[in-house]
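Comment thread on ticket #2218

A.B. wrote:
> Attaching the input chain for the structure job we discussed in standup.
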Amino acid sequence: MRRAVFLDRDGVLNAALRDAKGRPLPPRDEAGLRILPGVPEACARLRAAGFLLIGATNQPDIARGTTPPELVRRLNALVSQAAGLDAMALCPHDDADGCGCRKPLPGLLTGAAEEHGIALQDSWMVGDRWRDIAAGQAAGCRTAFIQAHYAERQPEAPDITVSNLSEAVDHILSVPA
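C.D. wrote:
> Ran it. Output below, let me know if you need it in another format.
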């Protein structure tokens, strides 16, 4: 079984936009996609330490009909390439769909674990929203919360709270395997 770091997309790997209420939003097109500073280097450090890198992203705008699935696929491919991800797990549903893959449920992580032979108890979920942390906890992973100061509920008891992915990686790499 392999160790992995699950990485939320918007706000962890690429910059999230914010709505008028201060909540995060995904980029609306390729031109608006901006990989966050230090992300390629942080991901390379994780890969060098033997971790699989798996993106785990909720994209409910697909279900809402406000973002075409093809655009999300293109953005996922660009982010995956920039960060050097092994895979990108995607939930295209909204809360009302009742799926098991929409974070805070653990389906994205457990599905990827089954597909890639991942030991969840030896893995991490890195996210910038309470849903990410709750999904990681439900899957049995350690969790790293990137505090982005969104105007929304905060996660309960992440293992660590940091200000960016590079800080999360410093901590992850300091924990014995």
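A.B. wrote:
> Thanks. Noting for the ticket: The CA atoms of residues 42 and 167 lie 9 Å apart.
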